[in-house]
Each structure stands twice: as structure tokens, then as C-alpha cells.
């Protein structure tokens, strides 16, 4: 080959954060020392949804899936001894993105950084939260305003920052096809860019600067040829939209800029060692093609379907990237797919289908209208149901799950309970105690004022009042938010001030409109389970069996709960499903009011050991202790045994992929709880 300069590798990140700011800071510095070239911050669910650690909904969730950041002091400790002016930091934060960016900016100022040099990304894509991840807080209109204000602020004050990372990653996790993933993400981008343009906060001659700072965060599944073609189509459509709709002439400003986390949905609990090759194939989809190569890559760990990865597991994933970038010859060549008629045909087909779907969404009034109508959510629930049905039928092969299930003993999981990292239950109490101290001391300490003169800045209450006035009016909310950060306001206080003005939002579940995804003809598994449901309802003298599907706590990953709800409905159950973010008290009240025959709880955030026993205790107190409770989620073996000992009738984890079979087992538990003889009808 002709000698040419080797391309610079993409940014290499590891999505990380847990327990406390101090523990996460130690992890970040360790990962940077191993050659990681950027940070990717995982925040815990209370931080993501605007609650302080001592709120009732935060119980069991503090420090579980990320780091708790409740105020300026936490943010200082999170980045202790990490020079932010030299760092490229990605923060996976959406509803509270403005708040976390304000804290980040103030800490950078305290370090003496020039904020115009700060580089990084805030995810800040609220649309996909309504559809797939569930950390939304405010209604679509106010949420779009927060995003708009933040984009306008960063363009003017932090010009190297990516204020939004339009995130199709979680859409694929929720069942999106490549066409849906591109179309829904592009429709979100159009809604955001239209809002910034129409706000008048950025003059028309500078609108190219806005477009140039829009980035995307995508998913790459194991069908890596299709995924690579998806990325090429993504880039073409973005170029077309920004040129034709917004008149951007500068090709550099129209460049499709994206980072990627490869698919976690496809990681399996069964034979988890197979996840390593899945991760490698998925990474190739976004690195092989130079013209569609990711600007930043973060890989999950092989054991994420089992629980929280350990530092060694994260190191393994980092080394996968480093071997490809530094040992292989990938970066020495131009685009190796250029001129392929197979690739070109697939990309063109995707482009045509996506543009048609984008037009359809625009005719509905755009992405926000399609969220509020329930169209986008119902489409995703249907797509996910169809995918699950293909896996259950064996039409879509998953090694170790529905084919080649025999396996040698796995030394990596010989002691399954030590094959993942667990968060000490005492952490939550420590974080809550630290928060109490912060609240008590901030009114007097200059520390609360960003190390400034305590008489220069407003008090906590004054800054919150100013924020509410700004929210009720039309001014950009970033300056008022920065004042709150400097005054020592907490995450929960900032969010509650905006809740008072904007209200809250419960997104459509998409369950009721999802079509039948599996066949129910005579002799099929679903037909047999329908018979069990009907006979059990008759034996109990009930018109129909009633199942409550509940999601306690702040875990917004509702895909599993939705699929159980849809299949139970198709099997003849009357399903009570009220969506995400419920307290144990609300779940028990609904179970009693609806006189259900079973309660199914879905938790993927690790809070099951705190929240499930609370539900059981409340049912017993209410005289409904014989009502069977089942639990599904990412639950280690030791925790599952603990839950069963506490009274849970059955525990399901990702290895239990057969939803129809799960519904049959739910019927069995209902019969057992009501002292009915087992049915011989197979499930």
C-alpha cells in the first residue's frame, strides 16, 4: 500500500460511575491511567430524574446505576484532580441536563479553566426518554424549552461543547428497526433545530454553529453489515436535512458527528462469555467504514446482563478498542466499502424508507406531537414484541439462548455472585447523611457560593425564586440555573422549582395499542396458555384473571414490563399497567383497588432487595399476604434466593426469554396461591 498518515483513533470511553462521587472519581482516574481518552459519566436514577437521595422514590436507587450528584460539592469531588479544561467529558443526563452542565461549569471555573475551552457532551435528548428509557420529568413543551435554552447558551458561551446528543441508542433497545431508529432520531433533531431557530436566541447567520454542535449517540447491533449501512444512511440523511431544511452551506458544519455504545439488549445472561464476540462484531459496525466511523466509542462489559461490571470487566472492553485501533491496520486505509454495489443498494433502500417515515412524522406535527399522541411509543412496543416473538419461535437465533444451549462449565461465572460488582447498601445512608450536612451548612459557608464572597450571590431561596420567575417567563434558564448551582441548591430543589411551574408528565405506555405479536392458533403455546388462563378464571369464579404489572422506584427501563403486559393481555388476562415510577404504596393500593390475582414487579436498576420486601410487607399489612408476587429483572442468584425467602413466588431474569412460558408460570402461581390443583395443560 502507499504510505499515508494513519488516522487518529476515535475517543475511547467507558461508561462508569457508582456509589459515591469519591468512589467514581477514583474509578475515572484509574481508567484514564489505563489509556482511556475521554470520560463517560453514568449518573444514578435520582440524579437523572430530579430527586434528592432522601426522597421516597430514591429509596434503593442511590448510587446503583451511576453516581449520585446532589449539589456542587458532589460535582467537585467527582472531578477532583481531573483538569476539566483538558478533558472530553460525556454526561448521560437528560431531564436534568441543564443542571448538571451548570454544576460542571462552576467546578471548571473553580479550577481556573477557561470555559470556552471545555469539551464534551450532554445527552439532553428528552424525546427518547418518553419512548424508551423513562427518566423524563417535565412535559414535552417545557422539556424542549430547556434543551433549546441550553443549546443557545453553549453556542454563545461554551462553543466546543455538544449541548445535545440525539440518542437513538435506547430506541433500538426498545425494539426500533434501523428505519425507526434513524427516522425517530432525525425527527427529534428537526424538532430541536426548529425550536432553536424559532427562539431567536441565535442569529440566522450563526445557525451553522448550532448545527455543527449537534451530535448523535447510536446503537450498533450484531447484524454489523446492516448496522454499518445504517450509519452511512444516517450521515446522508443528516447532510440532506441540514442543507435543504436549514440552508447550511459549510460541509464541515453539516458533518454527521456521532458516538456509539454497542448493543446491550443483545447481551445474554446465558453463556455470557459469548457477549465478548458480540461486542467485537458490534464495534466493527461503527469503525470499519471510514466514511461512517464513530467519533467516540464506549463498549459494555461481557457481564452486564448479570449485574454491575467490575473495573477488570471494564478494562477488558477498553482493551478490545485499543487492540483494534493500535494493533490492526484499520486506520491505515480509506473507506474499504466505497464502490460496493451491495452496500450502496442497502444504504439507498434505508435512506428512502427513512425519509418517508420522517415525512409521516412531520405530517403529524413533528416528533413532540408524535410522542404525545402515542404513535412513536406504540410503534416501538410493537416492533419489540415482534422481535421477541421471532426469538421465541427460533426464527431469530441467539447462541446459548434458543440454539446451542449446551455448555461447558464457565470459569468466569463459577462463583456468580462475585462475577459482578455490588454496591454496598450502606452507601445510601452515607449519601443521605452527607446531603443533610450540606443543607445545614450551606447557608453560612462560603463554600456554597462557588468559593466566592457569601454576600455577592443570592441565598438558596432567592436563587430558586429567580429560577421560577424565569421559568414562568421567556428568558433563557441557564443563567438562573448557574445562580442556583453557585448558591448550593440541590438537584431535587432545582427540579422541584421547575415542577411547580412546568408540571410533570406521564408518557403513554403503548401497551393497549400493540398488536398480537405471536400466533394463537390451536395447538400453539399461546393457545395452551389461554386455555390455562380461562380455566383458572372459571375455577376462581372470576370473569377474567387480573395481573398488575408494576415498576417500583425510578427504573424507567420498561421494555420487559411492557412485553409481559402485552403477552398477558394476549393470553386473556386483564392487565393493570400504570407505567413507570411508582412507590410500593401506590402499587399495593392499585393491587387492592383492582382486586388483582397476581402482582408482577419489574426492576432492572438493582433496587429489588429494598423495594420488593416493602411491597410484600404492605400486602401483608393490608390482609393480602396470600396474593402471589413475582419479580423480573437483572437479579443475581443470591438476591433471588433472598427474595424467594421473603415470600416472592417466582423470580425471572434475562435467561427466561420465553414470555409465553412466563405467563403460563404466572397462572401456575395463581393456582398454587389459591390452593387449586395444577393443570396438566403444558405452558
Task: Walk me through this protein's architecture.
The protein is an alpha/beta fold. It is 47% helix and 9% strand. It has a five-stranded parallel beta sheet with strand order 1-10-9-8-7. Mean pLDDT is 92; it is low at 444-452.
User: Biggest β-sheet, characterized?
Assistant: 5 strands, parallel
Percentage of β-strand residues: 5-15%
Count of DSSP helices? 25
Instruction: Report the C-alpha radius of gyration, rounded.
Output: 25 Å
**What is the number of E strands?**
15
Tell me the overall shape: globular
Distance between the termini: 60 Å
In short:
The chain is of the alpha/beta class. It has helices at residues 21-33, 45-49, 72-78, 97-110, 127-133, 140-157, 169-173, 178-199, 207-212, 224-244, 274-285, 311-326, 341-363, 367-372, 375-393, 426-441, 460-472, 478-487, 491-502, 525-539, 559-570, 584-594, 608-621, 637-646, 659-673, and strands at residues 11-13, 15-16, 39-42, 88-92, 119-122, 161-162, 164-167, 214-220, 258-262, 296-298, 546-550, 574-577, 598-603, 629-633, 650-652. Strands 1-10-9-8-7 form a five-stranded parallel sheet.
